[in-house]
């Protein structure tokens, strides 16, 4: 992986890869030591927790106004 320059707004999202299938992801991680695969659901939860820690109440969903 090429080191990224510090750019405003970059976060862990810039290090994510998206794959067409679990098999494709496993092939990529086999060729890139130190990487791992997590499911889309797990990634979503990780992002939610990161946002809650970083932004607190600002990251809560907007109230339903219907």
Counting DSSP H or I runs of 4 or more residues, the number of helices is: 2
Poorly predicted runs of 5 or more residues: none
What percentage of residues falls in helices of 4 or more residues? 25-40%
Mean pLDDT: 76
Strand content: under 5%
Main sheet characteristics: none
**End-to-end CA span:** 46 Å
Estimated structural class:
mainly alpha
**How many β-strand stretches?**
0
Radius of gyration: 15 Å
In one word, what is the shape? elongated
* SSE sequence, one letter per element: HH
Topology readout:
Elements: H1 22-31, H2 40-55
Question: Can you tell me about this structure?
Answer:
It contains two helices and no strands. With about 70 residues, it is an all-alpha fold. The chain has a domain of about 35 residues. It is elongated and about 45 Å long.
Quick summary:
Helices cover 39% and strands 0% of the residues. It is mainly alpha-helical and 66 residues long.
